[in-house]
């Protein structure tokens, strides 16, 4: 077990290359938000944009289009019922499931068209539908972001057993494509290759709807611009809760949109640290 540390995130978030453009920082496609749950994709997208993804497209129920554009002019919007296949082709990272409800046809399109070189983050309703329909993971670089109930449904590990690292590894071995697992709770764990990483920042001020949608958007934004994928996911998980912990010094609850708004300043602090630090120091624990 390894603690998710500030150093680990600072090693991922380095200053940007002057000679770069939006294409350098990846194209995120967010697929979710049925007619009642459009807020979920707004929170995904706000987090992905504020994390620095080069381009962000939302494929959603079209009733959400005006609200998304009003909140996030940086984001492109397409109809998930008609424009999904060609939009998936243009993406580096696809995030599916937040607020998707029971739109199984949309989920099936994503699973059928995702390519092995693409990163696929599977969240929320997508995990619940995959469990109900017994769907397999596609051949892609997969990141799963379940909360405890979603992991009980999809990984078939009871919430009580999820405290046991070996029970979660046993469930992960059944998946052929070696997904990264972000198992969210008040003590979030990340399973990556042969290691389990434990989150030690964050707290109950985060217990509000949309907090996971924001995390999923951050994971997508970080995965789009920082390679390799594993450390990018770890850095996103750490920063999401570290920002919340910072905000909680002056706030009883830390709203998802407030966390998202604080991402660029937090990332800039980490990027500045990564230049001022001696390379030997960055390897030491906090
Ligand atoms: N504004 C929005 O549009 C929002 C949309 N949301 C979307 O709504 C869909 C349904 O998600 P829900 O998670 O609400 O519903 P679920 O039915 O998937 O999960 C909630 C159930 O899990 C149980 N549970 C046990 N341990 C838990 C844990 N550690 N964290 C959370 N729940 C735990 C709860 O008691 C509850 O019975 C998802 O697609 C999600 O992305 C939510 O994010 C809320 C906000
Ligand atoms: N008591 C808590 N302490 C720390 N983190 C918490 C706590 N409660 C919730 N969280 C975090 O909030 C997020 C909730 O995710 P999720 O349930 O998927 O939210 P939603 O689907 O509403 O967006 C996770 O990242 C989880 O770790
Ligand atoms: Mg969720």
UniProtKB/TrEMBL annotation:
PROSITE patterns: YJEF_C_1, YJEF_C_2, YJEF_C_3. GO terms for molecular function: ADP-dependent NAD(P)H-hydrate dehydratase activity; NAD(P)HX epimerase activity. Its EC number is 4.2.1.136. (6S)-NADPHX binds at residues 40, 99, 147, 213. It is an enzyme of class 4 (lyase). AMP binds at residues 184-188, 212. It comes from the Bacteria. Its cofactor is Mg(2+). It catalyses: (6S)-NADHX + ADP = AMP + phosphate + NADH + H(+); (6S)-NADPHX + ADP = AMP + phosphate + NADPH + H(+). Keywords: ATP-binding, Isomerase, Lyase, NAD, NADP, Nucleotide-binding. Residues 5-270 form the YjeF C-terminal domain. Catalyzes the dehydration of the S-form of NAD(P)HX at the expense of ADP, which is converted to AMP. Together with NAD(P)HX epimerase, which catalyzes the epimerization of the S- and R-forms, the enzyme allows the repair of both epimers of NAD(P)HX, a damaged form of NAD(P)H that is a result of enzymatic or heat-dependent hydration. Homotetramer. Belongs to the NnrD/CARKD family. This is ADP-dependent (S)-NAD(P)H-hydrate dehydratase. It comes from Fructobacillus fructosus. The gene is nnrD.
């Amino acid at each position: 077990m390894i603690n998710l540390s500030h150093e680990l995130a600072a090693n991922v978030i380095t200053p940007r290359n002057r000679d770069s453009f939006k294409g350098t920082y990846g194209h995120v496609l967010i697929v979710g938000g049925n007619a009642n749950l459009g807020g979920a994709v707004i929170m995904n997208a706000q987090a992905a944009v504020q994390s620095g993804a080069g381009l962000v497209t939302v494929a959603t129920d079209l009733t959400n289009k005006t609200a998304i554009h009003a909140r996030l002019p940086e984001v492109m919007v397409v109809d998930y019922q008609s424009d999904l296949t060609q939009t998936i082709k243009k993406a580096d990272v696809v995030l599916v499931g937040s607020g998707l409800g029971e739109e199984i046809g949309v989920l099936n399109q994503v699973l059928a068209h995702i390519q092995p070189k693409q990163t696929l983050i599977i969240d929320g309703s997508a995990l619940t539908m995959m469990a109900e329909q017994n769907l397999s993971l596609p051949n892609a670089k997969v990141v799963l972001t379940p909360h405890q109930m979603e992991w009980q449904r999809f990984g078939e590990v009871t919430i009580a057993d999820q405290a046991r690292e070996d029970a979660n590894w046993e469930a992960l071995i059944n998946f052929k494509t070696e997904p990264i697992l972000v198992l969210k709770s008040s003590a979030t764990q990340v399973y990556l290759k042969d290691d389990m990483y434990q989150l030690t920042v964050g707290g109950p001020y985060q217990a509000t709807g949309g907090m996971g949608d924001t995390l999923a958007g951050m994971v997508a934004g970080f995965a789009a611009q920082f390679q390799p994928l594993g450390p990018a996911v770890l850095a996103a998980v750490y920063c999401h809760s570290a920002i919340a912990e910072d905000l909680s010094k002056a706030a009883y609850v830390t709203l998802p949109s407030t966390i998202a708004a604080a991402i660029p300043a937090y990332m800039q602090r980490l990027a500045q640290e990564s230049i001022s630090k001696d390379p030997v120091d960055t390897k030491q624990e906090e």
